[in-house]
């Protein structure tokens, strides 16, 4: 009997451990995407600090053109407008629900004051569609503040834009009790997996996945083991767990080293790129990168990759996309119908890298091609032009017609 209990409980514990590990990966990856979306929104709010916003009264068309470009590049930003100071609803950065109370598909308005020296002259207002902003959340997940206010919920019994009900107050109190950045909490019939993050106002926020123990280890698993089909079931579960882990590895669209989007995200947005306006794609490669690793070590090599990635992010436009394809190779998707515009964007990146004062100094080469049938073919054409740039002496951008 003891042996039978051991044979049942051991694989059950293994299954539970792996299932919880998978859920933790889901929470971690979802938090990364949530933080990434917040960073993008913050970059939009930073437009309030630009001359476009400050000079809006004299030249509204310049800001409105940029706002239209931003909204066409993603799905959750619905409007970006500037209000004069006499129409402002508050005097600071503010986030408010403006439509669809207790509805995860509601609209939220974010406001950022515009200052001329130290005088408020207006405010930038962004409206986002909450459902699209957190579309990557899994069933059973919700995002709440440190006070228990639920901002967004995909859990069937927890309401968005309201405080946690008494039925779930134990979730928040236990998270406060263990006081960690992430963790797993067993509440008896339910298990809480959480990760600390923050909202646009910098306040502590939790991304929570609430699951029942029956979801972690289904009852039929126990029945199957009691019927003594131990080895066969364990093998099947092991294979299934490995497959799920492999699938979960594809969830993240962020390259950890460079913090740029990765190839998975490029594949993810391919269909939307082909349906919309014309795009060009550029492959960017760090010249003589092997020498950097051989001379200075891989730690410095990683530092160079991060610096080049930061330069790419700061040099491209708000509605362009930047990716790390792997190693020292990057890609930039440029929204334009004009090859000259695409060349100017990539040439700006090349010059910025060349003028960096970091040590070791590096340069880049690039090839550009239009996005026509699919990303794979376009990358192949761009790679051919990159090869031409390398053969022609490096530190240059090539396309047809010739750039610059």
Indicate the multimeric state.
single chain
Name the overall outline: globular
The name CATH uses for the topology of the largest domain is: Beta-Lactamase
What integer is the average pLDDT? Answer: 84
State the share of residues found in helices, binned by percent. Answer: 40-55%
> What is the number of strand segments?
16
Unreliable sequence segments = none
CATH class designation of the largest domain? Alpha Beta
Characterise this structure.
It contains 14 helices and 16 strands. The strands form three sheets. Strands 7-6-5-10-9-8 form a six-stranded antiparallel sheet, sandwiched between helices. It has a six-stranded mixed sheet with strand order 11-13-14-12-15-16. It has a four-stranded antiparallel sheet with strand order 1-4-3-2. It folds into three domains: 2-40 and 137-248, 2-Layer Sandwich (Beta-Lactamase); 50-132, no CATH class; 261-398, Alpha-Beta Plaits (2-Layer Sandwich), CATH 3.30.70. It has 404 residues and is of the alpha+beta class. The mean pLDDT is 84. It is globular and about 65 Å long. A hairpin with a 5-residue loop joins strand 9 and strand 10 (204-212).
